[in-house]
Amino acid sequence: MSGAPPLTLARLNSMNQTGFTTALGFAFELSPWVVERAWTERPFASVEAMHRAMMAVLEAATTADKLALIRAHPELASKAAIAKTLTAESNAEQASAGLDKLTPEEFARFHDLNAAYRDRFGFPFIICVRLNDKASILAAMQARLSNDEASEIAEAITQIGLISKLRLLDAVTE
Q1: Which of 40, 47, 98, 110 has the fewest beta carbons under 10 Å from its own?
Q2: Mind listing the pLDDT tens digit for each residue in 112-164?
C-alpha cells in the first residue's frame, strides 16, 4: 500500500464495491464480507458513520456468520502470535499489549486460559488488546469463562467492534 494515495473518506465513498472491500477488508479479521455488505450505505458522513454501518451488518448477520468472524481471529499469545505469523494488524495489536514478550509462566497461563475458553465456547477469546494490558486481558479471560455462549458471542462482537473501529480510525482520514 505504500505508494497508494491515503484512504480518505471521499475516496472511499466514490469507490466501487470491490475497491471499497479491498481497501477496508483488513478492518474485520479475514472477513471482508462485513465491509462489502456495508458498501451499499455510502456515502458515509464520517469514519464513525461508516463503522456504524459495518456494525449494523454484523448485528443483522446470522449466528453462523458471526461465529465465522469470531473464529477468524487468532488466539492471544498463541504460538502463531509469538512467531508473528498473524495478520499485520493482529501482530501489531498483540505487541501493543506486550503479548509478544511474555515470560514462560505468562505464556503458560495464556495457553491454559485459551484452551479452557476454546473448549467451553468453540471459538477463540476476543478482546480489544489495544485497550488493555496483559493483566486486564488475563483477568477478563478468567472472568468470561463463566459466561454463557450467547453472552460470549455478543461480547466477542462488541470487542470486534472496538478492534475494527480503531483499525479504521488509524487508516482513514476525513
Answers
A1: 40
A2: 999 999 999 999 999 999 999 999 999 999 999 999 999 999 999 999 999 99
The active-site residue out of 37, 51, 66, 73 is 73
Separation of alpha carbons 110 and 80, rounded Å: 13
Pairing of strands 172-173, 7-8: parallel
- pLDDT tens column, 11-67: 999 999 999 999 999 999 889 999 999 999 999 999 999 999 999 999 999 999 999
Angle between helices 63-71 and 149-171 (to 10 degrees): 60
73 tagged catalytic = yes
CATH fold of the domain at 74-171 = UraD-like (1.10.3330)
